[in-house]
């Protein structure tokens, strides 16, 4: 084996190994982000009076009264991370959390530099499931496999009824 063949083989094996790790990294990113938002929601829920105070005096959520903003914000932080972690409606939940993250930064004008960087990291990590999808270790993947197989079988049944030659067979017989 010459140098080029050895290098090519090494690169192919490396890419294969990375492909093998891809579902695990997708899951890790989803769980990491879900954990961050889930913890924020549970803190808000555990101390509801403090949450209402923050939404009334600290956070400046546009267009919403503080009570409604607190309810919606806590609801988003408790529901969307569950969907994201399970990989169910992943792109939707990632989009909602991405927009929620932007609103959180805009609504909290006294957020310090470290807090802004945290929100930037979270936003970037949310772009992975938003654009890439949930990956193979998700309910989205299993649901789509189930329904895709079902749809393909139904289409095949409709296009080729029993005792009727398929389009390929009728083309061959002409």
Quote the beta fraction.
under 5%
Largest sheet: none
In angstroms, what is the radius of gyration?
A: 24 Å
Shape: flat
What is the multimeric organization of the chains shown?
A: single chain
Number of strands: 0
Structural class, by secondary structure, is mainly alpha
Written as H for each helix and E for each strand, in order along the chain, the element string is: HHHHHHH
Number of structurally distinct domains: 2
**What is the count of DSSP helices, taking H or I runs of 4+ residues?**
7
- CA-CA gap between termini: 52 Å
Q: How much helicity do the residues have?
A: over 70%
Mean pLDDT: 88
Low-confidence stretches: 167-174
Give structural notes.
It contains seven helices and no strands. The chain is mainly alpha-helical and 174 residues long. The protein folds into two domains: 18-137, no CATH class; 138-174. The chain has helices spanning 3-46, 48-58, 66-86, 90-107, 113-132, 139-159, 167-173.
């Amino acid at each position: 084996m010459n140098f080029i063949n050895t290098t090519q083989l090494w690169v192919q094996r490396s890419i294969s190994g990375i492909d093998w790790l891809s579902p695990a990294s997708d899951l890790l990113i989803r769980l990491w982000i879900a954990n961050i938002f889930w913890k924020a929601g549970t803190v808000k829920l555990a101390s509801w009076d403090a949450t209402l105070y923050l939404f009334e005096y600290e956070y400046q959520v546009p267009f919403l009264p503080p009570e409604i903003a607190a309810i919606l914000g806590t609801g988003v932080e408790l529901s969307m991370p569950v969907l994201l972690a399970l990989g169910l409606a992943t792109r939707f939940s990632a989009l909602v959390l991405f927009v929620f993250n932007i609103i959180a930064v805009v609504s909290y004008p006294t957020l310090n530099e470290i807090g802004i960087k945290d929100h930037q990291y979270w936003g970037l990590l949310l772009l992975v499931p938003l654009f890439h999808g949930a990956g193979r270790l998700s309910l989205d993947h299993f649901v789509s496999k189930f329904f895709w197989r079902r749809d393909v079988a139904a289409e095949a049944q409709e296009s080729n009824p029993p005792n009727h030659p398929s389009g390929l067979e009728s083309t061959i017989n002409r």
